[in-house]
Specification:
The protein has five helices and three strands; from the N terminus they run ααββαβαα. The chain has a three-stranded antiparallel beta sheet with strand order 2-1-3. Strand 1 and strand 2 form a beta hairpin. The model has no long low-confidence stretch (mean pLDDT about 80).
Length: about 160
């Protein structure tokens, strides 16, 4: 019938339309089924994405709690005050460089904290999000605290041998 219509041999256009309706209905039903399948896949992907977001939020919260416990433990072990005002920049300090995910990147020690932190910021400042310090009463305590902290946390820049 389509060939006859294309040659202009049909006198009844309604008959042509009527003959095409089953094919059009089948096409529409197929398109609706594909659309339902796409909506279903999208809903599944959105649910998976939300679950992944929740997992990452839980992991971030866990890491923050772990870091906070580590800071408290290190202060308790050392008996040194933490994060107070730097009364003497030439005292004995152990310092922690943190990234934006609250992970310790580097642990170091210095008898001139401002100079040493300035070197870090100039050399690798782009990855440093936060700096915390622990003031120690003497060099031996400073060295012991730094070694314990590195052994316990194995910060990325210490472990990889990156000179920070």
């Amino acid at each position: 019938m389509l060939e006859a219509a294309s040659r202009g041999e049909l006198d009844n256009p309604e008959a042509v339309i009527e003959s095409l309706m089953p094919a059009a209905d089948a096409f529409e039903a197929d398109a609706r089924e594909q659309l339902r399948a796409l909506h279903s896949r999208l809903a599944e992907q959105q649910a998976a994405h939300e679950a992944e977001r929740e997992r990452w939020a839980d992991e971030k919260a866990r890491l923050i709690r772990q870091c906070q416990r580590a800071e408290r433990d290190l202060v308790a072990i050392s008996g040194c005050p933490q994060n107070g005002p730097l009364e003497d920049p030439h005292g004995f300090y152990v310092y922690y460089l943190w990234d934006h995910l609250q992970r310790i990147l580097y642990i170091g020690r210095s008898a001139n904290i401002f100079r040493r932190l300035g070197e870090h910021v100039l050399k690798r400042g782009i990855g440093i999000y936060r700096i915390t310090t622990v003031q120690c009463p003497d060099a031996a305590t400073m060295e012991r605290l730094e070694m314990q902290a590195i052994a316990e946390h194995q910060p990325e820049w210490n472990v990889q041998g990156v000179s920070a």
